[in-house]
Each structure stands twice: as C-alpha cells, then as structure tokens.
Amino acid sequence: MKKERFIHPFEPVWDADCEILVLGTFPSVKSRENAFYYGHPQNRFWRVLAGVYGERLPQSVPEKKEMLLQYHIALWDVLESCEIEGSSDGSIARAVPNDIAGLLARCPVRHVLLNGKTAEKLYLRYWAALPVRHTALPSTSPANAAWTLERLTEEWKKAMEDR
Known about the structure:
Elements: E1 4-7, E2 20-24, H1 29-34, H2 45-53, H3 61-70, E3 73-77, E4 79-84, E5 93-97, H4 100-104, E6 111-115, H5 117-127, E7 133-137, H6 149-161
Parallel strand pairs: 2-3, 2-6, 6-7
Antiparallel strand pairs: 1-4, 4-5
Helix pairs in contact: 2-6
C-alpha cells in the first residue's frame, strides 16, 4: 500500500451550544467509505460515548449526530488534508490543519479532547496557542488494544465531566 493524498471528506459536527470539542487525527479508510467519523466497526468511540452517558449505542449517522449535540459535543479532526497510507496515523505526511480556531470562534467550547497521541501531537503543532484547555485521551482505535472498553470509558468519562 502506498501513501495517497486525501482531503477531509465531511464537515464537523457542531452547533452553537457545544462546550466540548473532540478531535481525532484524520478519517480512517472505513470512515471515509462510510462518510462519517469513527466508521470502522472495531473503533470504540461510539461505544465509549454511549457508555459515558448511559445511552444505547447509536447506529445511524443521524443518531450519532443527535447524541453528540444532545451532550453539547462537537466532533472534528485536526487535519484537513494529508498524505496517508491506509488508516495509519504513523504514515501521515504533508499535513494541513483544519481551521480549529475558526470553529472555536463559533461555539463556546471550553475543553478540547484529543483522541490519541497523534491527534495530540498535531494539535500541539498547529494549535497549542489557542486559549482553550485541552486533554489528550487514550485512542479509541482498535490498534490501542492495551486499553479495554471499560478503562477507555472511565478515562473519557472523567474528561467529559471536567468541562
């Protein structure tokens, strides 16, 4: 597999009431195919979020958006475009950031949650000077097998409650 250049294929999820912004790195192959965030069936993001709030697991894109906005959570990725091999964050090159500052100017986000080490690294490279608190969290990716669903949910719950 070789690196290919991709542009982020979908818009952020947000509204004027969002207080938390969750940032991933860039959509995986499955997410790009499904045209929505965390589309790989083994990614635990939606299970973690449902567990944090005691909700049933959302299935459709409208249900996922509804759950995010119900809890005042915006969702996006750090990168607008990059060269990437498959879904490997470690292969990212020639990255261009999304306009995180522009989004933050449109909603009252008080806490940015970064889904994994690569999202954290890239956020700090491009947006460390933003006047909003940020927290790096363990990745919900299936590649992060050291973290069980239960541990992930507890860690994410602490961060989500700490607005």
